[in-house]
Amino acid sequence: MDALRAEAKRVVEAAPEWDRRFFVVQVQEATERAMQVRILLSAGDAGQLWDLRCRVRENVITFLARETHCLPMVRTNTPGTDSAPIIDRP
User: Fold this and answer.
1) Residue 53: which of 6, 85, 8, 89 has the closest Cα?
2) Chain center to CA of 21
């Protein structure tokens, strides 16, 4: 969580949309298989808040994929083929 919080903070502090009023990262739920994290922040208006939320979400997902390899893998088989499963990581 420390690394995730630090990355989210780095992204928010560099974002021009952030109005510097509010920022927090919280674990909303945790089970033996998954953890749901909530990042709350503020911006000057609804449009800026939307852009900021998208920016933070995209950067945090990229960070998690690159640094932690914690994102789920999707395995698929194409019907009618004998090929091995395709493993895709977001």
Assistant:
1) 8
2) 21
CA–chain centroid gap for 16, Å, is 19
Q: By residue range, what is the domain housing residue 8?
A: 2-72
Contact 15, 57 (CB under 8 A): no
Asked, for residue 88, whether it belongs to a domain, the answer is no
Q: Report how many domains make up the chain.
A: 1
- Across 47-68, b (16+ Cβ under 10 Å) vs e yields ebbeebeebbeebbeebbeeee
Mean pLDDT by 10 residues, the chain (90 residues): 93 96 95 91 97 95 84 66 56
- The amino acid that residue 19 corresponds to is D
